[in-house]
């Protein structure tokens, strides 16, 4: 058969170039069917203006992102309203945030507030210590509608030697369960956890499980969605060591492996612990105030395996004493963001971000977000608009509840696990019809390859012999300049 004009080539893709392509460029397909070079877009750091969400003294602040309604919910103790537990809904727009009217969820003294979002039910769960009922831990389900939130009836988490002294709360997305952890003051401050099931506007609980038969303080928890495990970090009783346990939910119960030390403190102890999960590299990151080294802000990367966790070396995210530490993972630039109080810089509210690599983490510079003492820091991430939201008690403004939008600097890759299509077989201007050497074709426009070696597309568009994140196979080299595109 003889073709007149442009003959089709098996494996060749033709599409309109969005942006210029150079010969041999790694190429991906966009959602509109055009093709572009694989690469990264730089994102600059932005700190929005502070916005008051409660014009009164606030404490025990916890913030959570409602991904069903794309709203931020901040829960807190309102000191000037009889210390009632209160919540408010925030809406992020650009680099600012606005709030609806605060709503009371517990009309009595409330402390040790923690919250999580049940994405299966589309509900917020707030846990807290009910000081009107002997300090027992309680939970309540909230439903966001517009800029307001309504609540069901509070339920006691446990009343069996349960008096809560610090609490943690996270959502197990594999089992669709809320996992609550606390220090049980009436049971020798043992580390205790329980599984909660949300149904409508209520929550029910299984049986409490002791995960640490000794004093556990400064609890913080996160969910490892790669291994489907809950990780609880805390200060143990052994000289104030930082320790962590891995929990597995089954039905309405949870079981734990043995505790693993992540910080061997010998003086001062581990305090103000914060946890976050890097869903890009599937790592748990723990931050804390390091009593051994002048209370500096320290962090460590944890890798979950089965019912245990191992840790890399400690890194510092702050060069001086810190306090009131909070952490979240920025899914946009793939960094862990820490918000904290810089005790050696007039207690100013400060923020920094770190990149995980293997079992280590490295940090950029510190930035002040509030030139006043910032207490009860909390941080969540708006995955809809790719912005972090920091909430704090502003000591420079009568400890009023204050919040701001933060965007860390970094780079955003356009590569996904599915959109790589091949290599440009020539140079093309934006808007031209481009020919792409794709599946099972040989692209001979590369350099410095090793025959027989599998190559992976890197997020900056280059080729490498180790997978990036996401892991995308480019193909197998057959010479120094030729590669068989992935089949």
Quick tags:
Methylamine Dehydrogenase, Chain H, five-stranded antiparallel sheet, 61% strand, 43 strands, mainly beta, 21-stranded antiparallel sheet, 487 residues, disordered N terminus
Short description:
0% of the residues lie in helices and 61% in strands. The protein has 487 residues and is mainly beta.
Could you walk me through the main structural features you see in this protein, from its secondary elements to its overall organization?
- With 487 residues, the protein is mostly beta strands.
- It has a single domain, classed as 7 Propeller (Methylamine Dehydrogenase, Chain H).
- It is built from no helices and 43 strands.
- The protein has a 21-stranded antiparallel beta sheet that branches. Strands 1-38-37-2-3 form a 5-stranded antiparallel beta sheet, with no helix packed on it.
- The radius of gyration is 25 Å and the shape is globular.
- Mean pLDDT is 95; it is low at 1-7.
